[in-house]
Amino acid sequence: MNAIKETNFNFDNQTAFYRGKVRDVYTIANTYLAMVASDRISAFDVVLPRPIPYKGQVLNQIAAKFLKATADIIPNWVVSVPDPSVTIGQMCEPFKVEMVIRGYLSGHAWREYAAGKREVCGEALPEGLKENDKLPEPIITPTTKAAVGHDEDISRTDILKKGIVSEEDYVQLEQYTKALFQRGTEIAAQRGLILVDTKYEFGKKDGKIVLIDEIHTPDSSRYFYAEGYQERQEKGESQKQLSKEFVRKWLIENGFQGKDGQVVPEMTDEIVASISERYIELYEHIVGEKFVYPNQENVLERVERNVANALKTLNY
């Protein structure tokens, strides 16, 4: 299948290149970033061996739509989206924390709660909650951004004590995080979905806070179907969800959680196709449009051409 596992382009005025877990990032004239959303997939901070067709396009196009839909709340880094799998934006100085916000007790927070913890990142959790219960109000549970390995939970108190972010900036980050989550929740509800939790990344450009990276995608967020949510909770059933959590569950069921000595289970063609279908399903639900498959030309040639043409229009 025509998936983007990695890119190795060389653009005019390119000054740096960085390959992340799932993105290939080209720095242009130390002013712009051309970010290619590859079809690589990671879980438990490990890049899995096979790419997922169309995953990068799904993430890139959802993020583009949500960044546009939240531009009245906070300015963002985007300059253009010249290709289904690429965003070009302003280079910003990123904050060294990711702002995770949770409206429900799911995923990592639930695993901590089930292990007996009643506080996550300094946020107290009440007794008697079940997995996927709605929290009394959304909580912010930041993580430090690790260049390699696992991101680590951190509290607001420690962020300020260690001087990772100034108090003035952190207060603003909290306000933006809550406003963005509220907007994302409203849009999801219009589509019959619940935005369970998500993360935001912020940077600074010319002294101003800017929203960067992708938002409200299945890699950065967890969604439940609203229909039947309450009934499933009352019966103690698993929630029907659209997020990367189903990949994590498949890995856990097959003995992999990213720990030393564990081996990624075989990713058969059927598994790869089913993951791809789930990503497309989420796209169609959250965006409310049919997914448009790109022309079956060589995907790397298409991406390189579209980025090169877009860069010619920029000033640097």
Count helical runs: 8
N-C termini distance: 37 Å
Mean pLDDT: 93
CATH class of the largest domain: Alpha Beta
> What share of the residues lie within helices?
25-40%
| Global shape | globular
Secondary-structure element pattern, one letter each:
EEEEEHEEEEHEEEEEHHEEEHEHHH
- What percentage of the residues does DSSP assign to strands (E)? 25-35%
Which class of secondary structure composition applies to the elements? alpha+beta
Q: What is the radius of gyration? A: 19 Å
Biggest beta sheet attributes: 9 strands, antiparallel
CATH architecture descriptor name of the largest domain: 2-Layer Sandwich
**Low-confidence spans:** none
The figure for the number of domains is 2
Number of strand elements: 18
Q: Please name the fourth-level CATH homologous superfamily of the largest domain.
A: ATP-grasp fold, B domain
CATH topology of the largest domain: D-amino Acid Aminotransferase, Chain A, domain 1
Pfam families: SAICAR_synt
Organism: Sphingobacterium siyangense
GO molecular function: ATP binding; phosphoribosylaminoimidazolesuccinocarboxamide synthase activity
Pathway: Purine metabolism; IMP biosynthesis via de novo pathway; 5-amino-1-(5-phospho-D-ribosyl)imidazole-4-carboxamide from 5-amino-1-(5-phospho-D-ribosyl)imidazole-4-carboxylate: step 1/2
